[in-house]
Batch of 2 targets.
Target 1
Amino acid sequence: MTAISVDGADEDQERSALQAVLARLHHDFDHVVGSARVEHAWEAACHRFAGSRIRAFVPILAERRAVKELRTASAPGQPPDPVEEGP
């Protein structure tokens, strides 16, 4: 999971929310697009909000972005996107 830097007392709450979202994404999409594709979509979504100053809505915004990407990837007739391997 992407580590997002969070300052203040809400760090644990945000980390917990992010982990819960990732677990939901794996539950809902692993069987459709595969675990690696779910991780890739989640990493991209988290990266999009990494510099956000207001953190309260990051989990839900990242989830919406990842779900949109995963639904598009799982649409009939869509070729699977290659998952880039990290270093």
Target 2
Amino acid sequence: MGSVLEFRGISCSTLGTYFEELGGKKQMDIFPILYKGSGWSGEILKEEVIELTKVISVNKVLIRFSADSDAELNELIKRYRYKTTRIGG
């Protein structure tokens, strides 16, 4: 089972740290950057910069989540998205 999600405005290193906080171990240092946990894996597939205007740009990172079952995949994504939540002020 797998799913690909896009994250914007969060660095690859921070996104990798989130996998480590969820129990993952880094397997590769080049794209796709692979993290493996118990019954799941996460791959940081690529990072690119998107220009929103002539002076404002943000990064875009694609991540593939995989798990042994749909239930494990849904739980992994839920816990990961909680870490990426940003509350504006």
